[in-house]
TrEMBL record:
<dbReference type="InterPro" id="IPR005346">
    <property type="entry name" value="RnfH"/>
</dbReference>
<dbReference type="InterPro" id="IPR037021">
    <property type="entry name" value="RnfH_sf"/>
</dbReference>
<protein>
    <recommendedName>
        <fullName>UPF0125 protein UC35_21935</fullName>
    </recommendedName>
</protein>
<dbReference type="InterPro" id="IPR016155">
    <property type="entry name" value="Mopterin_synth/thiamin_S_b"/>
</dbReference>
<dbReference type="Pfam" id="PF03658">
    <property type="entry name" value="Ub-RnfH"/>
</dbReference>
<comment type="similarity">
    <text>Belongs to the UPF0125 (RnfH) family.</text>
</comment>
Amino acid sequence: MRVTVVYSPAPREVREWLLEVPAQATVSMALQASGLGIEFPDVDWKAAALGVWGRKASLAQPLREDDRIEVYRPLLVDPKLARRERFRKQGARAAGLFARKKK
């Protein structure tokens, strides 16, 4: 069975492994077969957030043919906080429904 493991160690940089795994393989087995832990020893993939095709997954989740396993990096900034800061810098009149439009 073919699966793909994807990891992005930095912004705009993506590493991808195409693997052949047994029919009853799990996410954990695919991550071990990918060599992710060898190439990126600082990543604790057992504690990292994981997904299969963008949906949250566990290490014990069984895989299907052509699944894409994604290993997510932790967020550096809370997205809600970043949006509030951008809005604060823009000002209330420059954004949203009440923005003053130039004619």
